[in-house]
Amino acid sequence: MSAKTAKVVLNEIEKHKDIAFYYLRGNHDKDSFINYIKENGDIPSNLFMFEDKWTKYTLSESGTKKICLYGAEFNKDNSSSLFYTLDMNTDDINIVMLHGQESEYEGKDDAEIIPIGNLKGRGIDYLALGHIHAYKVKELDSRGVYCYPGCLEGRGFDECGEHGFMLLDINEETGKVDYEFIDFACRKLHTVDVDISGLDNSSSIIDKVRDELLIKDYDKNDLIKISLQGSVDEYAEIDESLIAKAFSEDYFFVKVKNESKVFVDYMKYAQDESLKGFFIRALQDDDTLDDELKGEVVKMGLGALAGEEIIQ
Fold it and tell me: How many domains does the chain have?
């Protein structure tokens, strides 16, 4: 975490004294945020942290059941023993915080593996997990669930879809824990696959993309990645920047990635005595290349013969 980011986070914590913040470091956090706090004054009274052993916070004792929060941070010394030292009162409402990759089994020398099986039947009502950036909730056992709420905002096109946080509604008399995913992100990321097979120019591709986007009906504040798919002729004119520009006013951000494959009709060059014909026939007879790679080589080769600049 950069000093600038740490300052913003610390300012928000100090500004909202009525909110208790519980901070459990993940694999990217290291000590940067903690060090920044220590270098710039006292730790705020409403910021609570965890150690490499189980730390317990009692969140409420106002009902017949206490609400307790447990958390621990991984390191290479405690990863194998941590799950055997969790001691909770099963009559309480128990929330557990961890950061790591879920697994049905224990990892070998991996400080960030969470063996879900070792946490079943332990009296956990809600297991809050960090590490995976997409929302996921599953049953832990007959009593509780475990959940990756994901990150608050998608950070790239590998993190498409809804992003937000989990809101827990806890009945301190009955012990019932209800949870709801709150869609928080101000912008969503979407990848749109568009089959451009049979199209040979950017104008017709733009029309096809527009039809696909009309069906999707995405918000104007969203970020869109258009992935061009299918098979096209080796002479197809596909200008990614021109296609993206056609939709740049419709969304917050648009990018186009041409992932289509080149289809080569080798029979067109069977009797062609030009350099181009010899090149394509030689390529056709090359058994060391698959059809997909041959198509790419043809595309670059024909461009080079035409005097185009080849950029890989």
Answer: 3
